[in-house]
Amino acid sequence: MITGHVFIATSLDGFVARKAGELDWLMKQETEGEDHGYDAFMASVDGLVMGRGSFQTVLTFEEWPYEKPVVVMSQTLSQDDVPEAFADRVTLTRLDPAGVMKMLEGQGWSRVYVDGGKVVQSFLREGLIADMALTRIPILIGDGISLFGALDRDVDCEHLDTRTFPSGLVTSRYRIVNEAG
Question: In the chain, what are the domains?
């Protein structure tokens, strides 16, 4: 069975990006020599699902950060919006979260990295997240894109562990237990 997994950083006040998607506050963190588990996490997934906003932010990076396939959920982007250099690595879809997971399961995926505030929220609402690794960055940015938006029900989480780092980053991992009605 296919499962969704979150590995994401937020500001102390719970934002994954500024309102227009900027990650400047995240990029300036000094974490040299710290292993936050990202490489091991990436080795455990078949690929990524992200939204248009995250995709457009990643396109501003100096280097494409992913070796695995990326699926971008968007109602507005077309294949023309995908740079030719990434055309073989990026798939656009207009499917909803359940449809995306069904499509990926049909392609043999079993573990999906779900990334981006609004996409994580939509997958949580549909009960498609198995676990989350949340890293708090020691900065308050005041406003932005919240990791957790409105849910139509409680989502019960079991704390698995918490790690602290010399840089001040704190990573907590949670397993989604159930969705209470």
Answer: 3-180 (3.40.430.10)
